[in-house]
Amino acid sequence: MVLNNNIFCVTNPACMVDALIDMMDASGVNVQDMLIFVPSRRAVRTVEQALVKRAGHAVILPHLVALGEGVDGQDDEIDNLPDVIGNLERVVVVAKMLTADTDIKTMSVAIPVARDLVRMQDYMENEGVDATAIKWGELVDKESADHFKKKKIMLEIISKYMEQNANGRITQVQFRNKAMTAWKKRLADYKLVVVCGSTASVPVTADLMAEIAKLPHGRIILSGKIDGRIQDFGLNTNPYKAEYEFLKKIGVEPEHVVPIDMGKSAIDFLNYCMGNNIEPYQGDRDLSHCHLIEANHESQEAYAVAEIACREIKQKKSVLIITPDSAGNQRIETALNARGIRVDSSAGLSGNKVPAGRAILNLLDKWNEENPEKFNEVYTENNSDLFNTIAHIVAQYKSELMPRFVVDDEASVAVWGAIRELSWVLENSGIVVSGPDAYALIADVLSGVSVRRTPTDEPQVIILGTIESRMQTADVVILTGLNDGMFPARGYENSWLSRALSTKIGLPSPDKKVSLQALDFMNLSCGNKVYWVRSKMSGGAPTMKSRFLSRVDARNGVYNRQLAQDIIKAVEEYDNVPENPLDSGAPMPPADWSDVPVTSLKYLIHNPYVFYVHHILQLRPKNDWWEKKGAADFGDLVHQVIEETGGTDTDVMIAEMDARATQMLGEKSVVLHF
User: Which of 62, 292, 537, 558 has the fewest CB atoms within 10 Å, counting from its CB?
Assistant: First the structure.
């Protein structure tokens, strides 16, 4: 395996895409004979854009695939797989089963429990643990706490569910893993196969990469530059834990990984920061391209990010913002929009927050509180079909739906699609719901709907999560939320499994996420110009600085703190509106020598202010479209008719006045005759 010399790392992780393209050029293989795996669909677009930009014109692209996606086109192995059972069906049916528990009873209580159980099962499947094969009763002995004995019953429900209710179908995770595995049979169809930027942290991905590593035409470009002490790599929080496990799997020592020279970067010092070597660092500690900005609270942090982005955009720089959570994403996007900056955000708006979703939930909540039988009446009238019931409500109770919404816009269509799927699940499972159940189910299913905003043409700023950020770079990179518990975030931990039990059934340590985010932090911090941004308070409580920053400080990293005061001061001045005192002096309009109508003289004598407003300032009241026609209007009408008809034929004048009055007042007016 070592003799292949086909496992690589990059000396500057910010140049991962350039390293990939250089490898493609050096291979001598036609691009149509290349298969390239990258971490995400966004990474696919990034590579495509880089290839076109380098060529300066349209080019033939290699076969680019986002890791996690199965084979495309016709494939007998995939076509013959069992049908897939949707996650929504699993959640709804398991929730219905859980309502039989006397401590749960209602669907609103059961749904979060069911979703957590399904999520846990998917996580286990993704980590290579067959959840349906676990004998929970054997793992929980008689001496276990009573509360865990009860959990055991629920864990057995989720394990037995697939066997008893799925009818041979497989989960979405199982299908994806099998579709990924199917790539192994396609590798021989290409003359160059490359995996770039993957951490090999998911078992099915590691298996595919191991297969590629065996091939003479296979290449692996690891994420980051693996370097340091072997004993550190085995620690759960070490950035290279997953990559080290992969190298052990294929029998390659870390020192045999071939570096691709993409220039000097801060990765060597950052590797030292994240390791536990107590020997003094002999290299360069210079991180002057990094700037630390510490805001007082989360809202100020978002506006500090917007201030930084504005300054860099004025310098014609591209800006990439990394947020570890969706709430931070929304705060930052709002702050950027307030500054008029065009944003491309990876986050979408939840279905229960778009107008259509909120309106439906608001009305159902109102009915459940004020008139519980109302929903049951409409539901029964529509033959217990939830989708038709909601459609009926939208059509018949439009005036009660708040906020207002457009029925066929993109956000509303996403809401209707989610409710339609929920309705099918209920119908196929034979489940009839009450008003409170319908509210709980719709709220849950809409929370899983992500309505993406319409892409902005030529965005000035891109906002991504940590996973999507892999293989991305820009002139300026802003890392936000750098507090412990946020970046890094806690790994997958739940109330169902203790750490000891998780280890016993083969799940990785919850610190796995810390390890992966440490690698993201290091790679992104190798950009040309980097901002580290955090808030000192969150939710009214003090925060703790990210352990990544603490490690840099502990290793005496030299980075820039000078800009923070200027940024925070600029943000604080947003709310300091400059004083603009009123002029309390007497108004001095220019002399007006224009003619004054005789009818206005009475105002000059009896009410000079009205004369001043009307004649001097020349202000006029706006037309009131709701004001009824008055006597003056009809006086004008009479004068016009007399003038136009000559005032000789009374019948003609009366008929004309009636016609004009009808036109003025409308056909249904009570005024019938002059």
Answer: 558
Same domain? For 447 and 459 the reply is no
CATH number of the domain encompassing residue 539: 3.40.50.300
Among residues 548, 533, 527, 462, which one has the least CA distance to residue 308? 533
In a domain, 210, yes or no: yes
Residue 426 to residue 35: CA distance in whole angstroms: 42
Residue 186 domain boundaries: 2-79+176-265
For 10, which DSSP code? E
> Is residue 629 within 8 Å of 665, Cβ to Cβ?
yes
DSSP 186-252: TGGG-SEEEEEEE---SHHHHHHHHHHHHSTTEEEEESS---S-HHHHTSTTSTTHHHHHHHHHHT-
Q: CB neighbours (10 Å) of residue 374?
A: 17
Could you tell me the two tokens for 489? 């975030």
Tokens found for residue 174: 């199982």
Residue range 220-268, pLDDT digits in tens: 999 989 988 999 999 999 999 999 999 999 999 999 999 999 998 999 9
For residue 7, how many other CB atoms are within 10 A of its CB? 24
One-letter amino acid of 642? I
Q: Which pTM does this prediction carry? A: 0.79
Here the tokens at position 348 are 């979408």
215 token code pair: 């091939």
Q: Where are the alpha helices (DSSP H) in 223-297?
A: 230-233, 241-250, 267-274
